Amino acid sequence: MIELTVNGEARSVAAPARTHLADLLREHCGLTGTHLGCEQGVCGACTVMVNGVPTRSCLIYAHEAAGMEVTTIEGLDEDPVAEALRAAFSKHHALQCGYCTPGMMMTARDIVTRLGAVDEDRIRDELAGNLCRCTGYRGIVRAIAEVAATRPASAALPRREVPLTPPPAPARTASALSIAALPNQLKHRETLALPLDAAWAILSDPARIAACLPGMTLLRHEGEAVEGEMAVSLGPFAVKFAGLGTLTLDHAAHVGRLRGQGRDGANGAEGEVLWRLEPAGAGTTLVLDLAWRLTGPLAQFSRPALLRGMVAGMAGDFARNLERQARGEAVVAQAGLWAMLRAWLRGVLGR
Ligand code: FES
Ligand code: FES
Q1: Which is it for the CA torsion 105, 109, 115, 119, positive or negative?
Q2: 286: Cβ below 6 Å to ligand 1?
Q3: Tens digits of per-residue pLDDT, 26-36?
Q4: Which atom of ligand 1 approaches the CA of 41 most closely?
Q5: What are phi and psi of 313, to 5 degrees?
Q6: Tens digit of pLDDT for each residue in 186-233?
């Protein structure tokens, strides 16, 4: 049974474990104003507010919204900002078939209430995660700008960030844990030209792990708690996630597990990586299980082939850095353009 608040009303809903929030809203609550387009985080049609933050309801499981406040398009019937946006959308011909409109409205209301008077360039940036296949964006942007202009920027409401707290420490050993039920998952193997003990000496030391991962900066490490920053760039997106994580190591089994979450403005990331070392002749096999979820504009890149190629490329860079570090050589601090391109091509060609 999932207990949550939908449009101000407490709900208790029985739904299968893998039901995503959009299906729960549409099929169990009868709120069909939330539309489903791609169901992979690309189009933004399913955007609802979860605890005041625009969220793609096709990307989170319903049980993850337990205890939270969810607002759908139906919940904005009496909302004065939404009323002004509806009038402006009509005036500026900002919809045609209307399929994208509920998600557009949720994002538009967030832009207006959070940023107040704001220029059209910023509106286009903020709308990057909502796709419209028929109207074009000119009318939508004008409608939002018109309503935003009635609210001085100084009156903008602050964004209610999802609180950033370290995930709970696992109760069992790292080797006994299975990868989390996150929507994107990838298994990857790398052969290391290193004996197992030399590889584990690095893969059991948070500072040395961070040094091998291009874009990663370790800020703090106390017991199982780690804090760091991860810079990622892909196409027009360059983000630096600041976040917290929990690291668990099983030295006997040569297994490590890191689960963490981070934010950069409107972009959020949650992920888990499980690594295991196996002897392979004179070398070692590094087995990686990765799982992640992105939210916000960066989630547009949740196209599986693209992301899988990028993540596999990063895993390869990490493995080569690990070997360099074991040899006492300098690691490569940033993934180069060619490495990114290679990773992207691998993803596309591997579809
Ligand atoms: S249906 Fe959720 S982002 Fe497209
Ligand atoms: S109005 Fe048709 S998809 Fe946007």
Answers
A1: positive
A2: no
A3: 999 999 999 99
A4: 3
A5: -65, -40
A6: 888 999 999 999 999 999 999 999 888 878 889 988 888 889 888 876
Give dist(CA 263, CA 164) in Å, integer: 8
Mutate to test the pocket of ligand 1, among 20, 32, 38, 55 (most ligand atoms within 8 A of CB): 38
Which pLDDT tens digit goes with each residue over 233-256? 665 556 788 888 889 999 999 999
Atom of ligand 2 nearest to the CA of 132: 4
Distance 50 CA to ligand 1 centre (A): 15
Ligand 2 atom nearest residue 104's Cα: 4
- Which protein residue's CA is at the shortest distance from atom 3 of ligand 1? 41
Domains and their CATH numbers in the chain: 2-75 (3.10.20.30), 78-155 (1.10.150.120), 174-349 (3.30.530.20)
Q: Is the pLDDT of residue 348 over 90?
A: no
pTM over 0.85: no
Ligand number, closest to the Cα atom of 38 = 1
Nearest to 293 by CA among 342, 256, 243: 243
- The bridge status of strand 216-222 relative to strand 225-234 is antiparallel
Starting from the CA of residue 302, give the closest ligand.
Answer: 1
Of residues 125 and 144, more confidently modeled: 144
Residue 205 CB neighbours (<10 A): 13
Structure tokens at 177: 């844990």
CA distance 44 to 101: 10
Q: In whole angstroms, what is the distance from residue 111 CA to residue 203 CA?
A: 43
Alpha carbons 226 and 207: distance in angstroms, whole number = 10
